Q: What sequence folds into this?
């Protein structure tokens, strides 16, 4: 079981701790981390993003292309330590704090239905970038979370998001902001 801090509207901890599934059924505000792994396309020099294809068994957005690495912040934990933990758990990447560059905070609320149940995602995310040319064959994927990973050009992903492609579950506004930090 994963327990999360429920946040006040201003993003500060409320003192209430709830199980993850209850947070999503009730629509409570909670914290997450997003880590975008980027590199230059070896052939064109254009920015590329490592995307993960979520497991078909995920409780939300199954089999959807998503952020390189992301996750909930467990009750009492911090943003950076959670980002480093997610990178290691999901992808097998051993990073240190100085490898990550903090970009911005992002706020999202979305209500969906998965497996016949209402899922309310009300989150504040700290967004990081990790600029690293990683070979997919060197990654150790957490199979319960991720089916596969793929490098895609930033511009290609952007065209998919502009068309609301259902294969992607990336927040458009966050992706646009990310583009401002891709100075390859």
A:
């Amino acid at each position: 079981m994963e327990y999360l801090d429920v946040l006040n509207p201003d993003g500060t901890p409320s003192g209430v701790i709830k199980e993850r599934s209850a947070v999503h059924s009730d629509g409570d505000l909670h914290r997450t981390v997003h880590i975008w792994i980027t590199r230059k396309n070896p052939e064109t020099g254009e920015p590329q993003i490592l995307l993960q294809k979520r497991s078909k068994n995920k409780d939300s957005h199954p089999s959807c292309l998503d952020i390189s690495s992301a996750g909930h912040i467990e009750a009492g934990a911090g943003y950076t330590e959670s980002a480093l933990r997610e990178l290691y758990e999901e992808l097998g990447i051993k990073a240190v704090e100085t490898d990550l560059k903090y970009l911005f905070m992002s706020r999202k609320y979305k209500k969906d239905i998965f497996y016949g149940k209402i899922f309310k995602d009300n989150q504040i995310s700290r967004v990081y970038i990790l600029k690293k040319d990683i070979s997919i064959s060197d990654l150790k994927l957490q199979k319960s979370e991720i089916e596969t990973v793929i490098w895609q050009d930033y511009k290609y992903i952007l065209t998919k998001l502009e068309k609301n492609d259902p294969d992607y579950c990336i927040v458009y506004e966050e992706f646009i902001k990310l583009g401002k930090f891709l100075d390859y």
